[in-house]
Amino acid sequence: MIPVLSREFLGILRSPRALAALLAAAVAFSLLVLARWPAGGIVDLSGAGSRGAFLVFAAALLGGVLLLVPAFPASSIVRERNQGTLLLLFNSPISAVGIYAGKFLGVLAFAGLVLCTTLPAAAAVYAMGGVDPWQQIGLLYAVIVVMATLSIAIGLLVSTRATSPDAAVRVTYGLVFAVAFLTLAPHALTRGTTGLSATIAEWLRRLSPLPVVMHLVGQGGAVGGGLLEKDAGVWQFIVGGLGLAAVLAVATILQLDHRLFDRSRDAGTITDDQSLWVRIVRRLVFLVDPQRRKAGIPVFLNPIMVKEFRTRRFGRFHWLLRLAAGCAVVSLLMTLAATNGTMDWGVETIGGLLVILQIGLVVLLTPSLAAGLIASERERGGWPLLQSTTLSGWRIASGKLASVAWTMLLVLAATLPGYLVMTTIKPTMWNQVMLALVSVLLAVAMTLALSAAIGAFHSRTAAATVTVYVVLMILYLGPLIIWAFRGDPFGEQVVRGALSITPLGAALSVIGMPGFTQYELIPIAWRIAGTICVASLIVYALQVWRLLRPE
Amino acid sequence: MNAPADPVLDIRNLTKKFGAFTALDNLTLSLRRGQILGFIGPNGAGKTTTIKILVGAMRPTSGTATIAGADCVRDARRIKRLVGFMPDSFGAYDNMRVREYLDFFGAAFGIPRGARAKRIDEVLETTGSGWMQDRYVEALSHGMKQRIGVARTLLHDPEMLILDEPANGLDPQARIEMRDLLLKLAGLGKTLIVTSHILPELSRICDVVAIITQGKLRAFGTLDQIMRDLRQKRTFEVQLCGPAQVETAAAAVREALEPGEREGVKAHATESLVRFDTARSDTELAAILAALVGRRIDVSQFREIPKDLEDAFLSVTRREAPAA
User: Is B183 exposed, middle or buried (0-12, 13-18, 19+ CB in 10 A)?
Assistant: First the structure.
C-alpha cells in the first residue's frame, strides 16, 4: 500500500493543477480573512462580523472541496489502466485492498493538505470571536473531510468503470454534484407530505452536506427557500457519508482485478447485415439506429462537426433524442407541479426553476463537450492528421464549436414546452420569458466560448475538463452563494455586481424568481456575457491558428 | 549518388535549429518518382524533424524542400494534396467505425461524397482492409490500425507517401504484409519515404537509403553504393570439416594477414569455423585459401559474409559515435 500511496500523493503534488489548487486555496482564504478582519479598532461584541466571515469561510471550504477533490480520484485508475501500469500493479504483491487504500489515502492526504492551508483562516475566524471552535469550526472540518472522503470514493469507483480519464472526470463531477445538490430536490418536492416517499426524500437530504454546513454556520432555513430547514443532522450526515463511502469502496475493491482488462474488442456488428426483423425492432427502439451503416458526410456540412457528433458517445442521434426527451419531461413535470395546485410555488418560481434547470444543463454539459475539443485531438494524436488535411483553421475551429452549439440548442429547445405552458397560464409573462430565453442563450454562448478557449490551452482532455468545470462553477455558483448571503455579509452593490457576471442572475431577475426581482441586471449582464463570449472566441481562434501553423 | 534528373523530392541544405541545438544540419538529398526511400537513424537523429518540414508542419531555419515542384513552406496547401502522411501515432477517434473514419478524412480533403465512397472501397481493397470496414477504430489491433493508417494516406491519391515507422510494433506476419503493401504502393507509382528501426525490412524494399545521425546525412544512395562508400572491411568465414583443425586454421589466417587485422581473427570450435575481417583483395584472399589447403586443412567452404543494411547502419553510427 505504501508504494502506491507515496506515488499517488507525490504524483498529485507534482502536477501543476495541485500546485494551482494549493495556491488558490491559500490565497483565497487569506483574502477572506483580510477582507473580514476588523480594521477600525472597534470590537464587535455581538460577533456578527465573525459569523459573517464564518459563513463565507464555510461556503468557500465546501465549494473548494466539491470543485478540487473529485478531479484527482476520477482519473487515477482509468489512467493507470490505459497506460498499462495498473496491470503491473496487479502483478505485484500489493493486494487490491492495498492498491485501493494507497490511492484513496494519497488523494485524501492531498485534500488534507489543501484543508491545512485553510487552518490559518479558520484560526482567524475563531479569533474574531462568536464562533465555537469545536461545535462549529471542528464539526465543519469533520463534515468537509467526510464530503472529501465520499467524493474520493465516488471518483475511484467511476474510475474503475470508465474508459477514458475525461469521461471519468465528467461522470464523477456529475455524481458529486448530484449528491451535494440533487439530493435536496426530492425533499423540496415532498415537503409537507408524509409517507414512504417523504421518508426516502428525508433520508436522501441527509446525504447532502449543504443543510449541515448551513446549520453549522447558523443559517439553517435562511436560504434556499426552506430547502435547508429543520434539524440538519450533522452526525447523521457524517455517519451516512462514511457509510456510503465504505459501500462504494467495497464495490470498487471487488472490481480491482484482472477482469478489468477482460473486455473483448467490439466485433463491429452492423444492423444493415441483420435480419429484417432485427432491423425493424432496432428502428422502433432507437428511432435512429446507432448501428446502421452511415451515409458519407454531405459536402455542405462541415466534416469536423459531423466527426465530433459521431465520435461523441452522447453525440449520436439516439442519445440526443433521449436527452432532449428527458429535458422535455422534466420541464413539463415542473410546470405541471405548479399548475395542479399541490405546490404553492407560483408561476414565477417555476419559471426560475426552469431557468436554473436550463443553466444547470448548460454548465454541466457544455464543459464536457467543449473543453476537450482541441485537447482530445492533441491527446489522441489526431491533431497532426488534421494539420495534414486541407481543412482551414476556420473550418476546424467553427466545426468543433458548431457541434457543441447544436447539441446545447437542442437540449435547451427541449425545455421550452415548460415555458409554453407557463405563458398559457399567465400570458402577461411572454415578454419576461423572451428576455429570460435571450439570457439563457447568452449563457450558452458564453459558456461554450469560454470552455472552448480554456480547453484549447490544454493537451489533456481530463485536465481541460477539470479546469473548465472549476472556472464555470466559480462563475455560476459564486454569485449565487454571494446572493444567498445578501445583506449579511454582502451588501446590495456586491450582490448586484456578482449577479451581473453571468446571465443567470439576469434570467432569474426577469422571470420574477423570488429574491431576484429587486435587481436590474439587463443590459449590463448581457454586455458582460457578450464581451466574455467575444473575447473567448478570439482567444480560441488564435490558439487554433497557433497550433495549426508550422512550428 | 548523383541527383536524379527529374526529382519528385528535392531537399537542399535543409537546416533546422532550436536555439543553440541543431536538429537538422544541411541535409541535401533527392528522390525519383516511384522510388522507396528508407530513412533511418537512431532516436533523435532528425528523422521526424525532416518529415515535419516535408509535410509543412515545421519551418526550416534555412534551406529548401520541394515535392513535385511545390515548396514545403510556401505551397503548404499544395503539399497537403501531394503528400499522404502517416505519423507514428495512429490518431484514433472513439465510437467511429473504419468506414466512417475514412469518410471523415476523405471529406476533410474535399472529395465529393460519391467519389469518396468509391475511393474508400479502393483504398480498403489496396490495403486488404475491406473486411474491417464496420469495425470500431479503437477496437482494431495495432497491425490493423497501421493498414487503416496507410489507407487513410491514400484517400486523396497523393503523389508521395511519408510513413513514420509503419512496421513499428507489428508481429512478423504483419510486418511481411506491410512490406508487401509498401511494394504494392510503389508499384502503383507512389513515391515513398519510410522510416523504420526494423532495418532488414527496409533493406528488402528500399531503392535508396538515407542514414542520418545527429542531424547530418551520413550516407545516401542504394545499399550497394553505401556499402562501397563506407569502404569497410569485408568479413569472411572459413568453414572446416571438423573442430580439430580450427586453431591451426586460425593461426594460418593470422600469418597471412597484416598485423592490424590479426586481432580480428576468431576461432569458433563449436561451429568448426574461423571468421575474420580484412580489406584485402580477392587475389590476396585466394592466396590465404591456398595457404590453408597447403597445410592440409580440410576446408569445406570459404565464403564472404554479405553485409546488410543493419551492418551499414551500425558502421555509420559507430563511426559517428565519438563525435557525440
Answer: middle
Among A298, A310, A391, the residue with its CB nearest the CB of B95 is A310
Q: Measured between CA atoms, how close is B166 to chain A, in angstroms?
A: 15
- The pTM of this model reads 0.75
- By Cβ distance, the residue of B55, B91, B97 closest to A381 is B91
Report pLDDT for B202. 77
Q: How far apart are CA A511 and CA A431, in angstroms?
A: 9
Residue B175's pLDDT is 83
Whether residues B107 and A266 touch (CB distance < 8 A) is answered with no
| CB spacing of B57 vs A384 below 8 angstroms | yes
Q: Which helix (H) or strand (E) holds B234?
A: strand B234-240
**Roughly how many angstroms between the first and final C-alpha of chain A, as a whole number?**
44
pLDDT of residue A159 exceeding 80:
yes
DSSP classification of residue A137? I
> Nearest CB to A389: which of B73, B90, B108?
B108
pLDDT digits over A438-467, tens only?
Answer: 999 999 999 999 999 999 999 888 889 888
Q: What is the mean pLDDT of residues B187-206?
A: 82
The region that residue B73 occupies, defined by phi over 0 for left and psi between -120 and 50 for alpha, beta otherwise, is alpha
pLDDT tens column, A110-120: 889 888 888 88
C-alpha B136/C-alpha A360 separation (Å) is: 33
- A543, A451 Cβ separation under 8 angstroms: no
Q: Does the pLDDT value for residue A135 go beyond 90?
A: no
Q: How many CB pairs under 8 A join A and B?
A: 117
Chain A residue numbers touching B117 (CB-CB < 8 A): 296
Instruction: Decide: A477 and A502 in contact? Cβ < 8 Å.
Output: no
Residues with Cβ < 8 Å from A116, sequence gap 6 or more? none
CB atoms B56 and A164 under 8 Å: no
Contact call for residues A261 and A87 (beta carbons, < 8 A): yes
Residue of B nearest to A264 (CA): B139
Segment (H or E) for A348 = helix A346-370
- Is residue A136 within 8 Å of residue A38, measured between CB atoms? no
pLDDT value, residue B223: 76
Alpha helices of A194-313 — where are they, by DSSP H? 196-205, 209-216, 234-255, 276-286, 303-311
- Rounded Cα–Cα distance for residues B323 and A242 (Å): 63
Residue of chain A whose Cα is closest to the Cα of B83: A388
Q: In this structure, what C-alpha cell is assigned to residue A112?
A: 488534507
| Model confidence at B323: pLDDT above 50 | no
- The ipTM of this complex is 0.73
Burial A26-50 (b: 16+ CB within 10 A, else e): bebbeebbeebeeeeeeeeeeeebb
Chain B contact set for A393 (CB, 8 A): none
What 3-state DSSP class applies to A400? helix
Contact A397/A540 with Cβ under 8 angstroms? yes
Least confident of A296-310, A311-325, A494-508, B81-95: A311-325
As a whole number of angstroms, the distance between CA A26 and CA A53 comes to: 16
Residue position matching grid coordinates 500493479: A89
Contact A296 B103 (CB under 8 A): yes
Quick: pLDDT tens for B44-71: 888 889 999 998 889 999 999 999 989 9
Asked whether the predicted pLDDT for residue A386 surpasses 80, the reply is yes
Contact between B253 and B265 (Cβ < 8 Å): yes
Contacts of A387 in chain B (CB under 8 A): 55-57
Mean pLDDT of chain B: 86
- Does B113 contact A297 at a Cβ distance shorter than 8 Å? yes
DSSP 8-class letter at B139: G
- pLDDT tier at B4 (50, 70, 90 boundaries)? low
